[in-house]
Amino acid sequence: MFPWQELIRLSVGGVVAAFFEPIFWMIIALVGFQYWKLQKSQQRMFGVCGFSLTQQIALAICLGSIGGIVGTFLLTLVGINVDQLGLAYIWPVAILLMMVNMRFLCFAYAGGVVALSKVLFGWPNVDVSQVLVLVAVLHITESILIAISGIYGSMPIILQRKNGQLVGAFNLQNFWPLPLLLMSAVAVPELKVPEGVLGMPDWWPLLPVQGGLMEGHIWMYTMVSVVAALGYTDIAVASSPQMRRRKSALHLGLYSIVLLALALLSVHYKWLQAVAAMVSFLGHEMLIQIDSRQELEALPRYVPPAEGLMVLDTVVDTPAQKAGIKSGDILLRLHNLTIDTKEQLAEAIYLAPPVFIIEILRDDRRIEKKVKFSQNHKMLGVILVPEGNELYYVQLAEDKFWLWEKAKQIWGKNNKKI
User: Is the Cβ–Cβ distance between 110 and 91 less than 8 Å?
Assistant: First the structure.
């Protein structure tokens, strides 16, 4: 019988132990620096900031800890062995790929390349199945963290589309410290197994240890504490941040499950190792390209409405946020004054009493919200969608992967011949 409760307790204990590791707080400092840069960027664009830096770091620690528990549980469940992962090879490859494009700093690319090199050339000395299982489990963990992040890590921006139109959008960026416990296999004499060792069922591990075992010895596993980091970057133009994250999490989760199944099957069917290795990096790249294209080419969500003013985001700890005004709401009337322009909104705020009613349109329903100004401050705290004449905006750089572009060219030629 599998010791589920003991394994969960072990995973939680590993996360707690990571809080006493200096490397954990170094990663937290890097995460904080990334969010600080996002905060400064938002202040330059809108003059205000929509999120609290302290709150973002606290959420990163909380969600990263959840991810560490999930990741440790899954890695232990399949029986991964840190000694056969070849991290000394994967990291240099990841850094080299990062020099081509920052988003290639991902184990899906580096792990897939290292695994394929092992299959084709017999080098480096890694266990292909173990490497690809690690890639799959890390991405399953990432998909769960993306799904539960909600609006956390969503920064409003003004985006210039390919046709020159300025629209509202959200830059989605999350960074999570990931405290993990990885297993290391050690051969010990069968008669010298210490007491209190956690008993595992006969079918475990799903990933057997490669290498010979001396007669009279058995494999035992010790736990090694490792602190990693996960990151997620995306953009929401046609979707709300929550919808965009749910879609990304679903697609990433499906990709991860397929890769995990191929990696586990490749233990018994060696010809699947090359397939799984290519799915690791080509599948990940295809996922990014298709998802990004669909989002950027669809009709933008955050554009000026026919009536009223649309809210792109609200500023943290302001009357608008406290009143429950949300991204995508359309402001119609404030203190019985019609607001169709920013000038009309400014005038209505100036004339409004300390407590007033604002009428909004949400999901085709007109609702009213009671708003209360902060003491001696007449500021509503909304960031509006761009009108199209803004001076500061973001342009997306061309981000093409040559294999993807080549595949499209071949596909286009074949279609023309048909």
Answer: yes
- The total number of residues shown for the chain amounts to 418
Which residues make Cβ contacts (< 8 Å) with residue 234, sequence separation at least 6?
A: 172, 244, 245, 248, 291
Q: Does residue 114 contact residue 131 with C-beta atoms inside 8 Å?
A: yes
Q: What is the DSSP letter of 163?
A: T
* Closest-CA residue to 220 (of 258, 186, 257): 186
Structure-token match 């933008």, residue found: 300
The whole-number mean pLDDT for each consecutive block of 10 residues of the chain, a chain of 418 residues, reads: 83 87 89 86 75 86 94 92 90 87 85 96 94 96 93 87 93 91 84 67 85 76 86 93 95 98 96 97 93 93 95 90 94 95 94 94 94 85 91 74 55 58
* pTM attached to this predicted model: 0.87
Task: Determine what percent of the chain falls in helix, strand and coil, rounding each to the nearest 5.
Answer: 50, 20, 30
User: Is the backbone peptide bond immediately before 205 cis, with ω within 30 degrees of 0?
Assistant: yes
